[in-house]
Write a structure and sequence with these properties.
CATH architecture: Up-down Bundle
Largest sheet: 2 strands, antiparallel
Strand order of the largest sheet: 1-2
Radius of gyration: 16 Å
Number of helices: 4
Strand content: under 5%
Length: 158
C-alpha cells in the first residue's frame, strides 16, 4: 500500500465516522454548543468537508478559494444531520476522484496551502487527516455531553 492509499484508507474511516456522527445529531440540537466560544455541533462535524472544497480550489491555483470565510458561506451550511452526512460522503467521493485524477508525482509537488505555507501536496492531505480526526473527537465529546453514545471508532469501546 502506498502513501496515498494509506491516506484514503485512514481518512476515509474518519470521514465515515463524521458522517455517522452527523446522522446521530438530533434536529433540535444541531446548533448546540457547550460554550459561547464553541462551534455549533453540526457545523463542527460538517466543516472538514468544506476543507476539501477550499483545498481543491487552492490546488487548482484559484486565488479566490475563500479561506477562511468559506466556512460560514451559506452554500456551505447544512440544515440537519442527514443532509450533513450525505454531503460529507459525496464531498469525500468527489475529493478522492479529484486527487486520483492528478498525474503521477503531483502529490510530491510543493504548493502553497490555503493558509499561505509552502508544503508538499501529500503533507497537506495528511493535515486534512489530522484536522478531521480532531473534529471527530470534538463531535464525540458533544455527543457524550448530550447523552448520545457516539459510533465506535477503535472497536474497543464498551
Amino acid at each position: 500500500m502506498n502513501e496515498i492509499d494509506t491516506f484514503f484508507h485512514k481518512y476515509g474511516a474518519v470521514v465515515e465516522g463524521l458522517a455517522q456522527a452527523a446522522e446521530m445529531v438530533p434536529d433540535n440540537k444541531i446548533l448546540f454548543k457547550p460554550s459561547t466560544d464553541s462551534l455549533p455541533w453540526i457545523y463542527l462535524i460538517f466543516h472538514p468537508s468544506v476543507h476539501w472544497i477550499i483545498l481543491q480550489k487552492a490546488l487548482e491555483g484559484n486565488p479566490d478559494h475563500g479561506f477562511p470565510a468559506a466556512f460560514r458561506a451559506p452554500e456551505n451550511r447544512v440544515k440537519d444531520g442527514k443532509e450533513a452526512a450525505q454531503r460529507i460522503r459525496k464531498g469525500w467521493e468527489d475529493f478522492q476522484t479529484y486527487i486520483k485524477s492528478k498525474p503521477e508525482g503531483w502529490l510530491q509537488e510543493n504548493v502553497t496551502a490555503p493558509w499561505g505555507e509552502k508544503m508538499r501536496v501529500m503533507d497537506i492531505l495528511w493535515w486534512l487527516y489530522e484536522e478531521g480526526t480532531h473534529h471527530r473527537g470534538q463531535a464525540w465529546v458533544y455527543s457524550r455531553i448530550n447523552g448520545i453514545k457516539p459510533p465506535k471508532i477503535w472497536g474497543t469501546e464498551p
